[in-house]
Amino acid sequence: MNMPRPNRWKHKNKSKSTHSQSSSQGYGDTTTHRDGNHGHSSQGYYSGNATQESYDKRYDNRFGRERSRWNESEERPSEFRRDTFRTKGQFRKRHSHTSPSSGHLVQYQSHSESSSLTSGSTQSAGRTLSSSSQSGCKASSSSQSGCSTTSSSSQSQDSTSSNSQSKVKHLPGFYYDPEKKKYFRLLSGNNNYNPLTKDGLQLKAAEQTRVKMIQGKEPTPPKPAAQTAASSRTMILLQRNREQGQLTNQQFARFAHEHCVKMLPMQPTRELTPFPDTYFNGEAGSIQFLKVDQHQDRVLMVIHDSFLSRIWQGSVNRDDNNNDAVAIDNWGTVNVLGTRSNKITNVEWATSDRDDGLQVLYTVSGGQTSSAQLFKIYRDSSGRWKKEFVFSTESMEKMCWTCAWNYNPLMQPQISIGSSRCAVIFDIATANRKELYSGHSDVLAQVYSRHRPILFNGTRRGEILGCDLRVDLREPQLYPEGKTVACKLKHRVCVCSLKLLKDENYILASDISGKIRLWDMRMGRHIYSYQGLANKHSQLTVSVDSSETIVYGAGIDKCTKFWSLQDGRLLHTIPSPLPMSTDGLPVPAYSRQWHGGATPGLVLGMERQLFWYSLAL
Prior knowledge:
This protein has 617 residues and is of the alpha+beta class.
């Protein structure tokens, strides 16, 4: 049955006298404060200015009524019907709360309880929460339990108020400095008069984090004896487990290597000097790529600025003056490119076992034309480096995002270019060209299989496509679109880096959101994830060391991180060796088997400097 809705506000416009008269006759509530003012009876649902706004809001939410809040000057409704609540307990429970402004504990009681209180019964005094610590518990002996309840509640009230005061309010457009304890206004980043900008504050916070990371690990200069002792204890335990048969030789080598990576210093051991690049008086450009060849004896370094991009190659040797460091010497330029409108998008070693020469493959894109070039580097009779042009291609319609060299000895030498909406393959001997299917998406990462005729392409759409190279694309009727794909993995996010392991059933992929996954191509799903790489939009490279034990990479937070390849654990994080105000990102190159018997360690390039981190064995 639909009952008529009662009109609860029919006495809203009554005078103040009418309100006072009705308060003694209608259903009133007794409000008891902690300051000892008992028996303050006010008609209706409200008592005291402290709880006016909070209760009005709750009442509106309870009945779904949209009305303006009461002002302090307005009169309260002279009648409130408690029959809207189902029970007396619900009414008391709903209206017992703490005043947000004064901190007083307010308890609303029914009309029958207020009458019993005014009659002078001593039992009701125990129900009433009495006053603060100054007045004490001056009620009867039956109110001692109420006093203890009041004291405990007052402590909780004070702690709550102190915690609320300690919290700093967030004001849009303002920054709170905890040191000066003041608010400062934030303006746009291009304001030359106001140093407080959002980017500046984020940079300041990042610099403080970097300093804490360095000081947290090494508050004092490192003590080699202490590090050696801790490392030796762990190695003794691993050796004991291997002797007892709990670890195999392969597991022992893996755990020992991971432990040594954890012991990498937070600050560089030394700086590798001299730096070879002297263009523009040695003040322009920053390191963009640092690639090591498969024999761990050559390093490719790309330095980029807004005018010129320089490709350098150097030899890795052991430093005779310092046994704990490597030396990169015999630097020579591969090529110098004008990059006012272009940029080197990728560079790779194209080492071939069929000849003694070294080859360098790189792609340039961004201007009116995109190109890919292949150079051969060799030494002449006098010992000087010479370069020989091998292959070049240009395109005015498509971009060149990446490149790859085919190391498969059973196939003819060929290169691949990741282009717009397809992958393009060139045969070096015959200069034949063919396009591979990429799902109508740009190819941003590529890697060749060493034992199978397959090229893996990472696309902007978030797919990893393994294309069969034996397909003759000159007969498209035999191979419809997409039928040339041997395997397909859905990474879901734009893939920017691919690394194929020695066991070619596994491939490591990273994307522009910072996710790194190890895929098992037999099952078609990823088996490990490596968390912690900071990336939002950059095309960052993630690498695997030569022993295939460590995964490492640097993020946009300028931290270099190391993971265990076997289980995805984050082993170590190295902060930036330079202040966060620098523009460039760190470019790492880590190896356990450097050429010439050099000590294992990390070469980290940043801006125009090369840093060395020695691995403690």
